[in-house]
Design the sequence.
């Protein structure tokens, strides 16, 4: 975390009694109690099942949160982009796995430079041309690059499309003294939000089967302890059952969101609690049945469900988008509305892209603002 | 524009031949030729119709673009948030109209401070309680604040709901020596994207009728040259016909977007050209009918239509979202795909929230990157 970060208009409220209710809005609010519960719950799950954690920073983009994940036992973090990886390495976070192929030449140059100052950096690869480019760049720099084979387990987004293609890449990597084969990755992004738990479980087990075959073959070829990385918050407890994965790339569990809350968890319910909200204020109140707040589609991701009103409003109050900077709160009972200036908090609809719209986490404990953390890698596409 | 802005990984390409095709992606690309055409076309329209321009910076959030709008004849700019207004005033942009009510006490304090260093700042008001708070704050600071009455012309978002309510606010303002009544605002946000031109025209004329009544009453009461501000890119040429408006808050015309391109313009077609694109690279190419690019829902707004592939891909190529960091390009003909590393440019779906996802404009002229401008007020909710 850089020392000269602008902590915004709420910095003077840190530590003040009742400051949560006095935040300048819109403000992204992180409830530390729920957040710490979530960190501990996933760490406990990993310990109990003997699985490694490499949580995904695409969700939070924060060095401070990555540090806490490492402190809670994670062996590293996953990053979606080179920019996120650079931010994490600058924050001295070890074991960064870049989970998307790094392809353009200018980026490969940055990747190799990053590899020289990082501890345990890894990057996925899914194509022989990209592999050749990585190999040439690592060789030229006189460095050794750790690579992980990305296997398409049904998302059809990135990844090789067959076990044969994966093994062909493995052979090339193993034959190179500029590359180290660190393992395989398979992320079933398309299954994380399958509503029905039993169906999600069945599909996930089926999808990850090729990863076990690959792992066994790599071991047979003498690859020591290959990582088999995958899963998301929707399948964290499912994907460890199959025996294929040995580490989890879970991201959303630290915050949860309306989208995951609408997915059926295992029996016993979600182990994770809502921790991430947008605080907003009523800025127009000229109608009996609704008011307008200062948080619209530049504050909340619009790719999933609607934000859910959680604090400060009468029961049954619903949110509706009203443009870039505005949202509408519709009251169940027109007699129980909210006055001008009232503040509410809304649970974020889809956490990753919602976080990416903000610069700061306003960390609260109970009713008090206690810290502000920068979203260091926001916009590092 | 601050002097210590980080111009990102493409800064070294400025002025290089063919640099547009070598941008590190994803990158927001502004085609200066189309952009300058759009600035000139709106300025010419304003001159021809005798209407004032106060373009909305919520679209571009850039001091550099605001400067060019002023240089092309705009009398000021409109801002959706206090943060945008602060950014514009810091960039020495005069005549900022804040188009949403500023309500919480901490923000009113900032507003009054801003008013003391700004030239011609104005803020809208739509409620007597807010007006009383503004009056008290201006009085206490010993300053005079210009206010504009926000009139709801059908969007039901902000604004007073009747001519009577507007006139009641006007009387309070005129009686105060800490406030100056600068005019009225009516923005028909709900009509900007009515597809059919004739229908949009009919509805817009009807919606703005109360503004003319108000203007006449204010003049009758002795208000000198009240501004009557409103309109968007969808109704810029319609709202000037009615005679109610005397200035335009248009924003999107500088860029255009897929959403406006799907709206029927006046006969003769849109006067404005697409100028804003996201450049993206193919990072996975393991399927005959589609590839994956490095621009997903953290690069494009998802509240409107899909991005439109405009450059670098075979005709008929369609974009589909594939998560936070990825998009899919689906080819019309599988035999005419794109290789790994190929670069494409996509026209932005809805310009305002798409811009807000980026930090920099990569300004191109033809095939060359010629300047990089910061998106100064990005995230200034």
Sequence:
């Amino acid at each position: 975390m850089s020392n000269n970060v602008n902590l915004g208009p709420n910095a003077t409220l840190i530590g003040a009694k009742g400051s949560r209710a006095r935040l300048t809005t819109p403000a992204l609010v992180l409830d530390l109690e729920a957040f710490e519960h979530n960190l501990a719950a996933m760490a406990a799950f990993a310990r109990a099942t003997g699985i490694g954690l490499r949580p995904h920073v695409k969700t939070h983009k924060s060095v401070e949160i990555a540090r806490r994940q490492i402190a809670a036992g994670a062996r590293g973090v996953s990053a979606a982009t080179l920019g996120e990886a650079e931010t994490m390495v600058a924050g001295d976070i070890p074991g960064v796995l870049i989970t998307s192929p790094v392809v353009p030449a200018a980026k490969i140059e940055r990747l190799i430079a990053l590899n020289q100052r990082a501890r345990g950096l890894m990057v996925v690869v899914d194509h022989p041309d990209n592999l050749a480019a990585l190999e040439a760049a690592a060789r030229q720099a006189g460095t050794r690059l750790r690579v992980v084979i990305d296997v398409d387990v049904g998302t059809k987004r990135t990844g090789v499309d067959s076990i044969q293609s994966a093994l062909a890449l493995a052979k090339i990597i193993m034959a190179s003294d500029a590359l180290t084969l660190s393992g395989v990755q398979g992320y079933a992004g398309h299954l994380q939000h399958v509503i029905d738990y039993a169906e999600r479980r069945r599909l996930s087990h089926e999808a990850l089967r090729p990863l076990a075959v690959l792992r066994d073959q790599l071991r047979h070829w003498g690859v020591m302890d290959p990582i088999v990385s995958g899963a998301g918050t929707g399948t964290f407890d499912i994907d460890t059952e199959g025996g294929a994965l040995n580490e989890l790339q879970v991201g959303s569990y630290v915050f949860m969101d309306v989208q995951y809350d609408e997915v059926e968890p295992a029996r016993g319910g979600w182990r994770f609690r809502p921790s991430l909200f947008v605080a907003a204020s009523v800025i127009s109140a000229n109608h009996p049945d609704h008011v307008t707040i200062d948080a619209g589609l530049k504050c909340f991701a619009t790719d999933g469900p609607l934000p859910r009103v959680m604090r400060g409003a009468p029961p049954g109050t619903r949110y509706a988008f009203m443009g870039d900077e505005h949202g509408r709160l519709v009251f169940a009972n027109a007699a129980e509305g909210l006055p001008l200036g009232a503040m509410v908090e809304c649970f974020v609809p889809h956490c990753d892209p919602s976080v990416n719209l903000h610069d700061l986490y306003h960390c609260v404990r109970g009713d008090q603002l206690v810290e502000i953390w920068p979203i260091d890698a926001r916009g590092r596409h």
Summary: The mean pLDDT of chain B is 96. The domain at 32-261 of chain B is CATH 3.20.20.10 (TIM Barrel). Chain B touches chain A through 66 residues (CB under 8 Å). Chain B has two domains: 11-30+271-374, 32-261.
